[in-house]
Amino acid sequence: MSVDGQSVTGPEETTNVRAAGSPQSLREAQSLREAQALRKAVVVGGNRIPFARTGGAYTKSSNQDMLTAALDGLIARFGLQDERIGEVAAGAVLKHSRDFNLTREAVLGSALSAETPAYDLQQACATGLETVLGLGNKIRLGQIQSAIAGGVDSASDAPIAVSEGLREVLLDLNRAKALPQRLQILARLRPKDLAPDAPNTGEPRTGLSMGEHQALTTAQWKITRQAQDELAYNSHRNLAAAYEAGFFDDLLTPYRGLSRDSNLRADTTLEKLASLKPVFGRNLGSEATMTAGNSTPLTDGASTVLLASEEWADQHGLPKLATVLDGEAAAVDFVHGKDGLLMAPAFAVPRLLARNGLTLDDIDFFEIHEAFAGTVLSTLAAWEDEEFGRTRLGLDGAFGKVDRARLNVNGSSLAAGHPFAATGGRIVASLAKMLHAKGTVDGRPALGLISVCAAGGQGVVALLEAH
Amino acid sequence: MTDTYTRLVSKGLGRDVAKKLGLPQPAVLRRYEPGQPLISGPVLVEGSSPGADALAAQLLEWDLDVRRHAVPKERLGAIVLVLDDLESPADLEQPVLTAAPSLRDLAPNGRVVTVSRASDGATPAAAAVRQGVDGLLRSLAKELRAGATGNGIVLAEDVSATSPAALGALSFFLSGRSAFVDGQFVRIGSTAGRLPADADKPLAGKVAVVTGAARGIGAAIARTLHRDGATVVVVDIPTAGDHLADVANEVRGTALQLDVSRDDAGQRIIDHAVGRHGHLDIVVHNAGITRDKLLVNMDHGRWSSVIGVNIAAQLRINEELLASEHFRSAPRIVSVASTSGIAGNRGQTNYAASKGGVIGMVRATAPLLAERGGSINAVAPGFIETEMTARIPFATREVARRLNSLQQGGRPEDVAEAIAFLASDAAGGISGEVLRVCGQNLVGA
Fold first, then answer.
1. What CATH code is assigned to B33-188?
2. Is the CB of B249 less than 8 angstroms away from the CB of A259?
3. CA A240/CA A237 separation, integer angstroms
4. Which pLDDT band, with edges at 50, 70 and 90, does A402 fall under?
5. Nearest CA in chain A to B278
6. From A79, A255, A259, residue closest to B238, measured CB to CB
7. Are both A224 and A171 inside the same structural domain?
8. For residues B353 and B312, what is the distance between their CA atoms, to the nearest angstrom?
9. Distance CA A168, CA A292 (A)
């Protein structure tokens, strides 16, 4: 059998085409489809490069460079050279137009089989987590046996667009046929058209930056400066301790001279954090509480996660750390001020847990992405709020309380940094390793919850279970 | 890292000028590539013992052009001097002087290999002649030119010249795999071992772990073991992980980011190899560090880190390996020692102590591995062209790399070849030995 001259019976394909439980005939396939329950999608492991503050070690690295490096580290860790993976999905938030096929190009530059398909995905900061959920679902449906999810972002190597004026002139110029026509078009150019159009983190519909949006929410939920600084302090302390314990030895591969996240301040103190000047929310009338210390900086980096069916992991002698149980997305109407920009997870998590018959008390590890300390604390405050529970979540009272001892125990984005699309992969791989180490709690597998807020008033959350 | 001088004087005007001025004229060495014949040109087997006859018959079986008597003016690929039946010093003259004129006909990159008996336990006269071969060979090796080398195989009592490891060693010495091994002996202690089914894939089906594999000699070892058919697990400290990943992907193996001086290093190595690849057959202890300082200025940090990584870690990992049920089927350990550990080196008391320690450990561990049908050996590199030696100041480096019989530095691949040989089943009868890869360095001979 061959399609367009491409062999479909190559050696590495044998494992995929004739995988365990694969049907041998059309009839068998039909009966299998009817009888088969969903498979399990397991997290085998992950790899990321250390995250670097923008303008630092990765200034000269493109998204494709970093994603390829993260992939190659994953391939080396799990011996995936020349392997045809079912599918690779990754994405970037800040993306050059030339990177229209970013993930596939990274695959082609990696040690994977060139016959590994790939697609790009983009859902702002939830990109990484959404690739895990999407690919996990394909594995659960039996469409693929293995997958690599991931994400990358560079704020250093960000695309800069030309102004709308210059862009129109250039396009018209390209269409013009004669010299006089060209000169006429060029004459339309004005000096202001030459100013480049740099990307920013502002919301298109409000013009407010993400930090200013969060400042509104932080003030609304009356989150104190001290509480935010404490969360930031814990993030640094926990991440530093995780590095010291060797937690990242099999989760991270050094890159460009970095072997730890460059934003990590192992020696930071509450006093130091308290001394920083507020940068967001200075015009709100109330006291400004958000500083560079309790907000994530712009960061460069990439992460990947290897997902598989149980059969594929077993055939390849690879570990099964955790199962991807379920995921949920939510969005809020921040444009009209109904909810804060980054509050969507406050709605997604209750829906996800309800669907799985769980409460916050059942969760052993909470991984709530620290876009800002205020984001995490506003979300926790909303869940503890009786009125929010009744009026917004439709519950009898407050949704519940998160045991802070189970929150971001190996640090999170405030310390590690946050290369937008790479954060999901960082969290999934770390959480899977933690769950695997924890094993069972009271006779049931340990449970982990991931929550990632995203631009556009969105949020994606996921549930993982120790394998 | 390239030795420009060697290239310059190997041909044309450079060669003529160097010759006129009496400058060193290092040869471009013949190095092994898969598919290459063992040696090109006839092999003269000198000696009249039954061992000599058996060896000659074996070489014929390897499709080599074998001579039992020299043909005048015929270019020889190698001379094998079989001296396994000598009983007193007077017995040495006849075979040696018979072979002597043929040295003139030895081709560039030719080989001289002696096969003799170990002197321990022999009568005084027999011990004298057997130890005499040692001095003879080492001197002869210094007389050879144009990339030719001389090495010896020493047979223990009850081990024949055609035992598996003797043949394994002979084929190693004849081939380009031993390019930078000169003036050395290997002792065949037992009849253990097995010649490979495929001479180009002697490690087929084996799972090998190489520590310190992110760069330099370690990376070369990983490549060589992979070339010889092994599945390779490369290990290095987490901060070297990016280079390690490149090596892993190149050799189609797996990377394990691990500090070998951690208490659980041995267990993690076993778990990774067995979990991912099903078994563990070969461990190469290559990870090592230098923290040079004159002893008078030595401090705790420099001393303890070198001892910790270079020898304490190997001892601890070996203990775990020996206790493991997964390291029982003809397991092989090869450690990287150093000529510094044999001859000493100014500023390297800590390093030399650790590398001397490796040699002691290898000798003492050999009986423990023999119980499992395994072996443990060390390779002691001399001056090797690596990133590390490239940082030595020019003049010092230039002197250091010429101070051996081959008048050049070795390559990481040369060390890797010796390790791959000792890790193979063909070397099964060799254990507790130290093989130097130093081009017959003039210090610490």
1. 3.40.50.720
2. no
3. 5
4. very high
5. A317
6. A259
7. no
8. 11
9. 38
Q: Is residue A45 part of a domain?
A: no
Structurally, what CATH architecture does the domain formed by B207-437 represent? 3-Layer(aba) Sandwich (3.40)
Residue B153: pLDDT band (50, 70, 90) is: very high
Contact predicate B221/B203, CB 8 Å? no
CB contact under 8 A, B257 and A81: no
At residue A352, does pLDDT exceed 50?
Answer: yes
The fraction of chain A above a pLDDT of 70, given in percent, is: 91
Claim to verify: residue A344 and residue A397 sit in the same structural domain = yes
Q: How far is B231 from chain A (nearest CA, A)?
A: 10
Mind giving me the DSSP string for A358-389?
--GGG-SEEEE--SBHHHHHHHHHHHH-HHII
Q: Quick check: is A134 in a domain?
A: no
Is B38 in the A-facing interface, judged by CB distances under 8 Å? Answer: no
Between CA B319 and CA B261 the distance in angstroms is 13
**Chain A contact present for B244, CB below 8 A:** yes
Q: Is residue A182 in some structural domain?
A: yes
Look at B305 and A17; give whichever has higher pLDDT. B305
How much is the average pLDDT of B142-150?
A: 91
Closest to B38 in 3D by CA, of B173, B134, B156? B173
Average pLDDT, chain A: 90
The answer to whether A301 and A424 have CB atoms below 8 angstroms apart is no
Residue A129, H or E segment: helix A127-140
Residue A226 belongs to what domain range? 210-246+270-294+326-466
Specify the pLDDT at position A390: 96
Q: Which residues of B touch A319 (CB under 8 A)?
A: 275
> What are the backbone angles phi and psi of residue A252, rounded to the nearest 5°?
-140, 145
Supply the ipTM of this predicted assembly.
0.84
